[in-house]
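Sorry to interrupt, but I need a hand with the structure work. Can you supply me with one protein entry, sequence and fold together? No commentary is needed, just the two lines. Leave the record below and I will have a look.
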Amino acid sequence: QLLQAAFDRACLQPPLPRDAAAFAARLVEARSRVSLIAQELARLLAALLVEHNALRKKLKALARAAPEVCRDIEDQLTRLLPRGFVSALPFERLTHCPRYLKAALLRLEKYRDDPARDARSMSELRPLQTQWLRAVAASHASRAGGASIDPQLEQFGWMLEELRVQLFAQTLRTPVPVSAKRLQKLWESLQR
């Protein structure tokens, strides 16, 4: 997966070559970049795996004390890191995954101190997430051959991850302002 993602980033970025000369130029350019890109991806994956391992340990420790929270985070992990995620996720999205995992870990660490705060935060997130999951399921059902979902719908899913950071781990900050109200307005505009 790492090699596929590195070659994709080095060779298959738009605009794609349209003739032999452009192809040869891309080949020369990619040859010098592919190992650097692979190293960058390897560093990113190492950081992601460190966060993933710490999160898994904390999930195991809190499974009985906070089953609903742990189940929500497990579902989040399934969406964030599906099979083949290294080559499937765009690099720009992959770079945010360690922060999303760290936010989930911080959520678990804060849960014991204030379960009610966690429940309030989830009550803001849950309606938006439920609407989005239904729309994604409907999109998958209506598309033949496993075609990808609508890019706006996909973008909304990433904004939900940013909302999770905002609600559960504000110290990690989000790259754009995000709130449940903003996402509700965005959702309503997408439904028109």
User: Anything to note?
Assistant: Residues 20-62 form the longest helix (43 residues). The mean pLDDT is 93. The chain has nine helices and no strands. The radius of gyration is 19 Å.
